[in-house]
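Exercise: predict the fold of this chain.
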Amino acid sequence: MSAASEARAIARQARKLIKDAGGKLGGRRRGNDPVWRHSFDVDSKQADVFRPIADGTIAGGLAWADDYLRLAKEYDVIHKKKGERSPLMANGIRVLEVLLRNFLDFRTGQLDPAITALMKKTALSKNAVVDALKRLREHGFLDWVRRSEKTTHVGEAGPQRQQATNAYHFDIGRLGRALGDAGKAVRARFLNLREARRRRAAQTPASARPAPQSAPGAASAPATTDPALEAALKRVEAAGEARVWKS
């Protein structure tokens, strides 16, 4: 190696040491770990977002999921502007339904499917799933925390961390967030749906109540909707808005 080449190599090494030292002093992690910014360790407090759904039972969770999905469908119809696509679109409704019925653990609230798993269950492309998730988040129907975890190479050469699946969760206080103050009506509507269900259950004799439904992941019956909503959804579908958009 020539003297000039050796000098350049030493200079590069010196710059790297200075850069790493600056990152440590500034409280920033530097390195080549292939993880997204603002990703938290899977065991950190920031990633602890899972909470039981309703009363934590399968029956209670499925009822909550039915009301939540009904709210999303109503929202998508009511807040569609003339000449524009609906806010959640058919893909958003489809992804939300799959999350609620196939991946959500009602007892713990755990909801962390991989994008590839959502692609398989929804039969949508990666771009379509990612866009649907963004729409759901924008309108407050879903939120998530990016997570990372240690690799098996800790202390060795190579990346020390790797990306883990997102931790998805629901926050009723964020429903309709894209509407600003008008979002209060969306949150109130969900509470009304829950209260109406509670009253119906209180008035129905135990012997007349339907048998418990299957757990998430199994085929389940579609949510019950009122005739007016069904008619509105059919009109939207007839107009072409409810078709599945694939990227």
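Check your answer against the key: The longest strand covers residues 161-169.
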